[in-house]
Amino acid sequence: MTAGRKRAFDKSEALDKAMRVFWENGYSATSVNDLTEALGINKPSLYAAFGNKEQLFTTALERYMSHYGLPLMERLTQPEGTPLARRIRAYMLGIINLVNSNESPKGCLFVKSSCETGASALSEDISLSLQAMRQANEKALVKVLDRERRRGHLPSTAKPRDIAEYLLSVLYGLSVMAKQGKSRNELIRIVDFAINSLSIPDD
Amino acid sequence: MTAGRKRAFDKSEALDKAMRVFWENGYSATSVNDLTEALGINKPSLYAAFGNKEQLFTTALERYMSHYGLPLMERLTQPEGTPLARRIRAYMLGIINLVNSNESPKGCLFVKSSCETGASALSEDISLSLQAMRQANEKALVKVLDRERRRGHLPSTAKPRDIAEYLLSVLYGLSVMAKQGKSRNELIRIVDFAINSLSIPDD
DNA sequence: GAATTATTATACCGTTCGGTACATAATGTC
DNA sequence: GACATTATGTACCGAACGGTATAATAATTC
User: Are A39 and A9 within 8 A, CB to CB?
Assistant: First the structure.
């Protein structure tokens, strides 16, 4: 072990708190003071542990995606015997719980951050990594749908990429709807309507 | 006419420019200096003409909705003889042109602003008026769909409110997708997929 | 043309911004 | 225990923030 005074706070817990502050306020509207207050540490500790505001945001965003976004993907393939439509529904219900929970800020940090993209707010680096995250998400979705098609759970004429892009659009829309104050039940109704419209065969 | 020196700038043009700055940067990431530079006026002129930053934003947002959002609604009812699916498509293509144009910032100011809702960024007043705008939009959409159903252009079992909420979700998603760098053609593909899924009768 | 009214430009207000210098305190290595 | 190393708390940096006081400049009313 290297020498030096031990860090007095849990870095992982601090990152969690920072993620929540960004989730609540967005990048631009979050000040370093907001962060140090929420984390209960001083500025030099924050800068020593996380670099600067932008780097902390990037780290928090990656944690958000790996901690909240990625685990939900499993619902698309498991449990094994479940019909595809039901698995997609379970996935989307997971997203609803994410964007409309009493335990966390309304909306999706990823969507919120994507909307902050542009001229001056978020750096080009962050914009690009947001795009990369969406591409990865889309790719994973296409992969699942492609496999389902090969297994006969989707018509052979179905286009996995089209379905994936469409589903992502609906999901992004759900996040905005949540921010707009829509209730959990209203969001579920939207998801059910979207899935019924897809008219995926039952087996 | 009241006495006093004449305003040296066109207030309407200035509001247009302000709207565009907010559209590009969002509320939080836009400074009053950004605004005065874009408008080519001094701070006292801005404050005299528009109140303060928040009031200017509110005015710009209302202009955005009435100038860009409202006119598109006509496509849902006209031209008279066109099938409903085609009218909905025309409406959504209009939205695509709005959120992905070379003449204006990518994305939708309304969606972007809704995402800035929350703890500290946007005031409670603005959040509420954003909600009111969405409700009005939704209501208008429901009204159109209800009329179409009565005319037999939708199954009698169709639920206008469900369809309206669903369509709005897709539209909001399109705005996020545009921010994510999706091309016009990709957005059109999403809209076409969504409309085909709806499987609205052709007449 | 004097009085009044509104807009302009400059310069400034206190506050907050992101970020850091510096001294002190605590840990490991030797 | 001396030393190197790392974290902490305080206090501060220049710059930018939203907003305004003040005085000069035009325009209208009478």
Answer: yes
The model carries a pTM of 0.95
In angstroms, the Cα distances linking B145 to A113, A123, B95, B153, B191 are 33, 42, 18, 9, 18
Question: Which positions 125-164 of B are in contact with A (Cβ < 8 Å)?
Answer: 130-131, 134, 162-163
CA distance A47 to chain B (A): 22
Q: How close, in Å, is residue A3 to chain B by CA atoms?
A: 41
Chain D bases near protein CB atoms (7 A cut-off) = 3-11, 16-22, 25-29
Element (H, E) at A163: helix A160-179
Residue A7 per-residue DSSP state? P
| Amino acid at position A65, single letter | M
Q: Enumerate the residues of chain A whose CB falls inside 8 A of the CB of residue B24.
A: 118-119
**What tokens does A174 get?**
């759900």
pLDDT per residue as tens digits for the range B71-86: 999 999 988 889 999 9
Q: How far is B166 from chain A (nearest CA, A)?
A: 5
Please give the Cα distance from A172 to A177 (Å, whole number): 9
CB-nearest to B26 from A116, A180, A193 is: A116
Which chain A residues touch B29 with a CB distance below 8 Å?
28, 116, 119-121
- DSSP 8-state code for residue A74: G
Tens digit of each residue's pLDDT (9 = 90 or more) over A18-58: 999 999 999 999 999 999 999 999 999 999 999 999 999 99
Name, in order, each residue with C-beta under 8 angstroms of B202's C-beta and a sequence gap of 6 or more. Answer: B83, B85
Percent above pLDDT 90 for chain B: 91
Q: Which two tokens stand for residue A29?
A: 């509207």
d(CA A122, CA A136) in angstroms, rounded, equals 20
Q: Examine residue B83 and say whether the peptide bond preceding it is cis (omega within 30 degrees of 0).
A: no
